[in-house]
Amino acid sequence: MRRMDVQKGDIRKIIGHLKNGYATRGDNMYKSFQKKAQRTVNQQNQKRHALASISLFVTIIVLFFSNIQLRRTSIHQPIELVRALILNDLEIYYVHRSTGGLAYVMIEDTKGPYTEEDRQLDPLCYMDDEDLNQIKNVFQMYILSDEKLTKADSMAIRTFFGNFVDRAAVMNYIIREFVDEQLYEDANDDQQVKKFQKMLESVGSMYKIDPIHANKWLYLSQA
Fold first, then answer.
1. For residue 58, is pLDDT > 70?
2. Torsions phi, psi of 54, nearest 5?
3. φ, ψ at 56 (rounded to 5°)
4. Where are the domains of the chain?
5. From the CA atom positions of the chain, what is the Rg in Å?
6. pLDDT digits over 104-122, tens only?
7. Coil, helix or strand for 215?
8. In this structure, is the dihedral angle defined by the CA atoms of residues 221, 202, 143 and 77, taken in order, positive or negative?
């Protein structure tokens, strides 16, 4: 049997290589475990994100169709009017459905032609002065609501009240919409005139309501 001479330094080298080998193998195993753990976490996150996206999509679809159904229901409900005030040159109506109030409509007989401010409005700003000067009396209609009206409600109110005005050759009307979020906060019946005056001021009207005697509320007109 052949004898092999091994020096102490060689033994140390061998042990060092073994240690390095085990260390490298251990590092590789640890890195492999890390990668697997990270893949598992990523897969779980992807599943959670997918479920969250599906849940959000379903919620949006439900809200969308619910809103459509609500609008269809609202559109098919008739609009009702409550006469709030009638004077010689001012009428105020409360417009509502069974679901709640829509707006107040104020009709002011200016007993005068277009103002310079009126002439800046669309489509009047595109018309000739000669045509505008033919109009001798302009009715101002203000639609005042606590939130922006839907297109359907706006069109319904505009069409209905547009028929209130006599369309003679020398007469015309202007309809404008305004929003006052605090419109229904002052609901005290004893302060109706003050409320109406405040509404007129909020839409830019210069009309001043004279004091109304209590017994005038018994009649069709408070003039």
1. no
2. -65, -45
3. -65, -40
4. 7-76, 80-218
5. 39
6. 999 999 999 999 999 998 8
7. helix
8. negative
